[in-house]
């Protein structure tokens, strides 16, 4: 369990993390989402005691992580996969970590097997691909068999096979009852991986809920109506306050009116309807909606290329 209470971090004029309070529970994957610069890495560094909070507190299993007697046995973290001595072999890198943390040597072979690096254990990590480097970082995180795991953007730059592997690993670790906290700005990835979400924007908490709640609370339900009387139905629905746009030759997408309302209006006006279905917004759409005011860096759109409203 990770618990933050009123956690803040200021760098000069910049309030990178602004009074964050949340808890990350065991037995589930908790996604930590936010646009670039939202404060995710800063929060993770404070959890690990690598940065001191300006105010507030954060504890891991009830105490500040800096006070942990056996840090690697309590928390495994993948913050920067490149933070490996490139001249060392994967085996020696892990052995060094194991020895300085009083962990048994046999654990090195176990974690190398777990992450699928057994065959290249004696090779220097300098020649590792990005995916192999990520696996080595994860092997290091798993070395102490910790109950709490934190991954900062673990799928960055990975191919689909690597992404699937990390996704399944995180789910398996959570299913073993561990606390799994993973940051990402890839919404689609979190939709597939996380059970619970903590979302921040400009350092502030903007949501703390399940993935489904997040989608339900932050997106507008759209309804697709297929009808051979497109124009008639469009006019009726717009007249009753619906926002209507055409979707192909024979369908409309409607917001601001409910499904029953649309069906009843069609019936009252003797308009035939061939299909009436809800369109579920994706997590990505919900995230864009919720954080649109807290995105730090907006890309400029070249003149004349603005998206049509
Ligand atoms: N050491 C530092 N000194 C000054 N400013 C910092 C420092 N570290 C982070 N910041 C600033 O704090 C804010 C939050 O940064 P942080 O890296 O925590 O965000 P993030 O959500 O992890 O972003 P990203 O998704 O881009 O990794 C940013 O505006 C960043 O420029």
UniProtKB/TrEMBL annotation:
Is Phosphoprotein tagged as a keyword?
A: no
ABC transporter domain residues are 2-227
Q: Care to name a GO molecular-function term for this sequence?
A: ATP hydrolysis activity
**Keywords from the named record:** ATP-binding, Nucleotide-binding, Transport
Pfam families tied to this protein = ABC_tran (PF00005)
InterPro entries in the cross-refs: AAA+_ATPase (IPR003593), ABC_transporter-like_ATP-bd (IPR003439), P-loop_NTPase (IPR027417)
Record keyword Transport present = yes
Q: Which family does it belong to?
A: Belongs to the ABC transporter superfamily.
This one is known as ATP-binding cassette domain-containing protein
């Amino acid at each position: 369990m990770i618990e933050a209470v009123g956690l803040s971090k200021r760098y000069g004029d910049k309030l990178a993390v602004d009074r964050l309070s949340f808890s990350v529970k065991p037995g589930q994957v908790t996604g930590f989402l936010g646009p670039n610069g939202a404060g995710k890495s800063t929060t993770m560094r404070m959890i690990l005691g690598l940065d001191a909070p300006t105010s507030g507190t954060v504890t891991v299993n009830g105490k500040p992580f800096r006070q942990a007697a056996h840090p690697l046995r309590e928390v495994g973290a993948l913050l920067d996969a490149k933070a490996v001595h490139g001249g060392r072999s994967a085996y020696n890198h892990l052995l060094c970590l194991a020895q300085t943390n009083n962990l048994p040597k046999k654990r090195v072979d176990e974690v190398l097997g777990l992450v699928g690096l057994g065959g290249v254990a004696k090779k220097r990590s300098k020649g590792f691909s990005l995916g192999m480097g990520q696996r080595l970082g994860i092997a290091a995180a798993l070395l102490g068999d910790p109950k709490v795991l934190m991954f900062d953007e673990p799928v960055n730059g990975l191919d689909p096979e690597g992404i699937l592997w990390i996704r399944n690993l995180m789910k398996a670790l959570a299913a073993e009852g561990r606390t799994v906290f993973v940051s990402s700005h890839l919404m689609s990835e979190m939709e597939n991986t996380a059970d619970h979400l903590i979302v921040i924007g400009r350092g502030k908490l903007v949501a703390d809920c399940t993935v489904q709640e997040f989608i339900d609370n932050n997106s507008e339900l759209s309804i697709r109506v297929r009808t051979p009387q497109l124009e008639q139905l469009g006019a009726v629905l717009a007249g009753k306050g619906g926002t209507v746009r055409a979707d192909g030759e024979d369908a409309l997408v409607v917001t601001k009116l409910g499904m029953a309302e649309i069906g009843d209006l069609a019936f009252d006006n003797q308009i035939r309807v061939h299909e009436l279905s809800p369109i579920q917004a994706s997590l990505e759409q919900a995230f864009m909606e919720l954080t649109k005011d807290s995105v730090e860096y907006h890309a400029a759109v070249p003149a004349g290329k603005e998206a049509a409203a």
